[in-house]
Fold this sequence. Notes:
Keywords: Iron, Metal-binding, Oxidoreductase. Its cofactor is Fe cation. With 371 residues, the chain is an alpha+beta fold. It is built from ten helices and 14 strands. The chain has a single domain, classed as B-lactam Antibiotic, Isopenicillin N Synthase, Chain (Jelly Rolls, Sandwich). The longest helix has 25 residues, at 181-205. It is globular, with a radius of gyration of 20 Å. The two termini are 38 Å apart.
Amino acid sequence: MVVSSIDEVxxxxxxxxxxxRELKAFDDTKLGxxxxxxxxxxxxxxxxxHLPDEFDKISDLDYTKFSIPVIDLEDNYKDPTIHKxxxxxxxxxxxxxxxxxxxxxxxxxxxLEEMQNGIHRFYEQDNAVKKELYTRDRMRPVVYNSNFDLxxxxxxxxxxxxLCYMAPNPPNPEDLPLVCREILQEYSKHVMKLGIFLFExxxxxxxxxxxxxxxxxxxxxxxxxxxxYPACPEPELTLGTSKHSDNxxxxxxxxxxxxGLQVLYKNKxxxxxxxxxxxxxxxxxFLQLISNDRFRSVEHRVLANHVGPRxxxxxxxxxxHLPTSKLYGPIKELLSEDNPPKxxxxxxxEYSAYFHAKGxxxxxxxQHFSI
Length: 371
């Protein structure tokens, strides 16, 4: 995966390269990365090149010693002892890794499989149908494009995306893509139920009432973000998703069997391997902010791959798309003379606007809100 020197990349770069022109030409096709693959490209366009310093933390650790926690939620409500054990494991995972996987979470396997199949159907449908949904207007009920930060990020990522705002104001059913309409609605209901349980556990892990985070509004909004990572002819030159942390409270991710998700842990990239039937859960920036760094919003990325297409469905618990003036800051019950607030108060709208303006440029956005 390592590009050995900048020269190896630069030999293919011409001084008269017009990046803006290439970006616009790509965007105007409204076919995304999949369109390039369908056209049979053997070399990726320069706009997708990531410089070598993006790849200098590939892990050479023994992955058996450093693995993302897997938490079994079975029998949680049947036995107080099991529930306490689950809360303890959630606390340890969120304070140490910021990531964990959950199994026996209550969402049927056939629902998970149909959700993935629905995403495949969306991207593999007729181009004319998809083009009607292609937009960079984030306020549309369904937003389909390639790279939300195409014109602001240092390099484009090898993926296409469509998203839907599923709560608190879900779109009219007829506004959702026909090929995955029913499963989007069904899956979102399941994820909301799981999310409420997770926020209850996270509240308890902070020593608060189980409803605390829910009452703060953490479960109010869900954004379903559906990624499609086509097979890449030159994966060593690009990424599926650049290094970033999530601009939400919590993310629940369904990934397929291909893999490629990595977490930055102690300056090393650690794989998050696909586990059959599991969902990946990770802390977002806003939960780190309101927990005053008790919980960790960890940087992660997705590798490009010769194998594909890979699909993933990330459900973001956030209301960043809504015009609200509600302020969020470190939870006062967690503060003390020895633990003063580390962040200023901000609105989700302000934070989301900053995130989208910066794009996935590899920088830590929480620092902008530090005191």
